[in-house]
Amino acid sequence: MNSIIHVNEKDNVVTCLRPLSKGDSVEVEGKSITANADIPVFHKMAIASIEPGGVCYKYGEVIGDATEAIGIGDHVHLHNIESTRGRGDKQL
Amino acid sequence: MKIKAYRRANGRFGIRNHLLVMPTSVCATATAERIAALVPGAVSIPNQHGCCQIDSDLSLTQKTIVGFGKNANVGAVLVVGLGCDGIQADAAAAEVAETGKPVKHIVIQECGGTLKAIAKGAELAAPMARELSMQEREECDISELIVGLECGGSDPTSGLASNPTIGFASTRLIDNGGSSILSETTEVIGAEHLLAARFTDPAQREKFLSLVKAVEDRAISLGEDLRSGQPTPGNKVGGLSTIEEKSLGCMYKAGTSPFTGALDYAESVPDEHGLYFMDTPGQDIDSITGMVAGGAQLVIFSTGRGTPTGNPIAPVIKITGNPETYEKMPDNIDINAGRIIAEGATVSQIGEELFDMMIEVSNGRMPSAESLGHREFGIFKLTGTF
Fold first, then answer.
1. Contact yes or no for B84/B28 (Cβ under 8 A)
2. pLDDT for A71 beyond 80
3. In A, which residues are within 8 Å of B322 by CB distance?
4. Cys bridge to B199: A20, B259, B358, B363, which one at CB 3.0-4.6 A?
């Protein structure tokens, strides 16, 4: 069984198919990527750097924007990406 | 391809033969439940509304419960009203009777109270149940099936495994002349551009996009982040971070068929078969209720975290893409699409299994939720009660 699934070549995150511990390395498209944190099963890991405000892609589509700088191997979840839709809190 | 089902007077086919005891309002619900409890084979629906609603909201409630009465899985109906409620028993009964099925109604205030209404209701319902018990299944084409597509308690395995499996089975059904309904408008936000491109009729495409916009606008009008409620806490623990990510996984349930049309909540599926979208909320129970009111006789439901949900009149087949959930909740899950992730099975392999089970369940096999008596029911409301 693969450790990760990279759904679309455009995606800058992968889905982990087993829990990763900080320091675990997995191979993604021929490159070795090391987890910077413990990442629970089926959660996402960045495979490219994403600038603050940069777009996060999964399925080749936008799933949100980075709220802080995201590095290769970072756990990508509620703490560092936000939705771009249904944001009543951002209305003037 | 054939299934064996119950023929109705209007030419439709039901895959179950329920006697529905249908309360027109919350004031009649307890009485209806007691009548149903006295008559084996009868089922009631826990209507929590039906009074003190403004017209558009009341009409939606009436459309929903009448849709249950009209559903081909229901062979006969006893309507129970209080008398002073917003939905009048005789009017609701007349609407259901348009299908040609046996329909009777009672009014609690006219019967003279709870006990007399229960006695009168059971006296009317028991012969209807006996009549239904004599009906036999007949062979009909699988194209008679309308299947509701649902996902709930999603996690990232839903988009990767179980929803694509449902999509495979839905496409197979539509290729055989049947119909499916994709639902849950909230869980289209972020994926609507991909689905909109599959509508064959530009007017229906515009309607679909306006339905999605209306739901997002409603969330925005509350001045809060939609993420406070969607994805849900369990979705987030599972690994879904945003509504866009959830939606992009949910949409796989729609397979690869073109969309024939976009329906309002509880709107009857038109005679033209194919893939439809229905405007329902992401809350599973309200969503399934809307699709069954629209005519769905069967529901296929994917879950990542695991959920027990069933329906009072339509069997619900449960499939998970999460191998651990399949192990943890064996009572509730019918099909293990976790084998796609854990064992390298293909979507088409599990999709064939699901399609075979859809045929078996159509022919009478009970899926887990039905065998455990899960009969969750909830009507979507436009606004609060007045």
1. no
2. yes
3. 42
4. B259
Residues B214, B286: Cα–Cα separation, whole Å: 18
Query: B69 is in which domain, residue-wise?
Result: 18-133
Q: What is the pLDDT of residue B307?
A: 96
Please check whether residues B218 and B328 belong to one and the same domain: yes
Mark yes or no for CB contact B239/A61 under 8 Å. Answer: no
Mutation to test the A interface, candidates B209, B226, B227, B242, most A Cβ within 10 Å: B242
What is the predicted pLDDT for the residue at A75? 98
B84 in the same domain as B185: no
Q: Are residues B193 and B321 in the same domain?
A: yes
User: Which region holds residue B50: left if phi is over 0, alpha if psi is between -120 and 50, else beta?
Assistant: left
The CATH number that applies at residue B79 is 3.40.50
Q: Are residues B298 and B336 both part of a single domain?
A: yes
Q: Which residues of chain A have a CB within 8 Å of the CB of B191?
A: 61
B345, closest residue in chain A (CA to CA):
A1
Chain B neighbors of A46, CB-CB under 8 A: none
Judge: A63–B189 Cβ closer than 8 Å, yes or no: no
Which domains does chain A possess? 4-85 (2.30.130.110)
Q: What six digits make up the tokens of B296?
A: 């769905």
Q: Which residues pair with B225 in a beta bridge?
A: A87
pTM (predicted TM-score): 0.97
CA distance A56 to chain B (A): 10
- Residues above pLDDT 70, as percent of chain B: 100
The domain boundary, picked from B77, B111, B133, lies at B133
User: Which of B101, B133, B165 marks a domain boundary?
Assistant: B133
B290 three-state secondary structure: helix
Let me know whether B173 and B126 are in one domain.
Answer: no
CB pair distance less than 8 Å for A88 and B159: no
Q: Please name the residues in contact with A26: beta carbons below 8 A apart, sequence gap of 6 or more.
A: A3, A4, A16, A20, A32, A33, A35, A45
Overall number of domains in chain B: 2
Phi and psi for B181 in degrees, rounded to 5?
A: -125, 120
Q: For residue A33, is pLDDT > 70?
A: yes
